[in-house]
Amino acid sequence: MLRIHVAIATVGRASLARQTIDLLAGQSRQPDGVIAVGATDADLAGLADSPMQPELALAERGLCRQRNRALDLLEGKADVVVFFDDDFVPSPDYLAAVERLFLAHPDVAGITGNLVGDGVRHGGYGIAQAQAMIAAQTLLLDPAIVPREALYGCNMALRMAHVGTLRFDEALPLYGWQEDIDFTMRLSRRGRLISTGLVSGVHLGVKGGRTSGRRLGYSQVANIIYLRRKGTMPAPLGRKLLWRNVAANLMRAPFPEPHVDRLGRLRGNALAFLDLWRGRLDPRKIESM
Predict the structure, then answer these.
(1) Which top EC class is named for this enzyme in its record (predicted)?
(2) Domain spans of the chain, in order of start
(3) pLDDT band at residue 210 under the 50/70/90 scheme
């Protein structure tokens, strides 16, 4: 048996985080602990009343800082930490499948689940909708184990023995755009990364509480270039992500989707390119924007 703890970083979405934590009661293999890390007491309001009895902690605002706080607190207590976004709905056997995979494959350092749906790309899903999608589609997913270069941060299970002193890069502030690529590319040097349809769920893609369009637009450029220089963003992937996002913002700014601030993102892209030209590009600049 492995000691499996679920960690959730949340800001400005206490009600949603409570619902996500409550859903863990439906796991066929219960977590050995749940920890929620907020930036203020308001981020954790009502979570103490959850039947899952989560441990509550505070950290300076920022996904990387909050996840690092969870890793620090779980050191020596957990064999596996499962990071869920506060809007991720796991399939009922998510934790059971993660445990079986880690026990069967000692060289595996990290696992990410195959998504039944990703609301980030479709304007967002509700919890009931996500549960219906999971019930209808989970058994249709390919159970094959697939090697991964990196893991998707909305749901990733990490073996703590491989994580060791590795931490998320706090130079990627607030929403931490591409922090999952950076962290798990470094983790891949310590063990295998995999995905499989045996582990699955739905990313709701809820918009509330996320960073502004201008800040995200700046991060879409600054974080990619920072990670390329750092060596944790493969060049082809970096080019694809950067130009795909910039092109989408440019083309859709005149007629944006209702849930996307395309003009704000485009302005952030432009500011980042200007800072790049000036030699002043820094992902941390968004904290003062």
Answers:
(1) transferase
(2) 4-203, 213-288
(3) low
pLDDT tens-digit profile of 121-134? 766 788 999 899 99
- Please tell me the number of Cα atoms within 13 Å of 211 on its side-chain side: 22
The total of other beta-carbon atoms located within 10 Å of residue 207's CB is: 15
| Per-state percent for the chain, helix, strand, coil, to nearest 5 | 45, 20, 35
Q: Which residue has the tokens 């990196």?
A: 150
**Helix, strand or coil, per DSSP, at residue 18:** helix
Under CATH, which number does the domain 4-203 receive?
3.90.550.10
Give the count of alpha carbons within 13 A of 159, CB side only: 24
Query: End-to-end distance of the chain based on CA atoms, in angstroms?
Result: 47
Q: How far is 61 from 235, CA to CA, in rounded Å? A: 30
Q: How far apart are CA 267 and CA 151, in angstroms?
A: 29
> What CA–CA distance (Å, rounded) separates 185 from 195?
14
Of 83, 107, 235, residue with least CA distance to 168: 83
Tell me the C-alpha distance between 110 and 82, whole Å.
9
pLDDT of amino acid 75:
95
0.90 exceeded by the pTM?
yes
For residues 195-200, give the mean pLDDT.
Answer: 95
Count of residues making up the chain: 289
Residue closest to 12 by CA, chosen among 65, 62, 68, 67: 62
Question: For residues 9 and 168, what is the distance between their CA atoms, to the nearest angstrom?
Answer: 13
Give the type of residue at 223: N
In the structure encoding, which two tokens stand for residue 124, read together? Answer: 């967002």
Structure tokens at 234: 């493969």
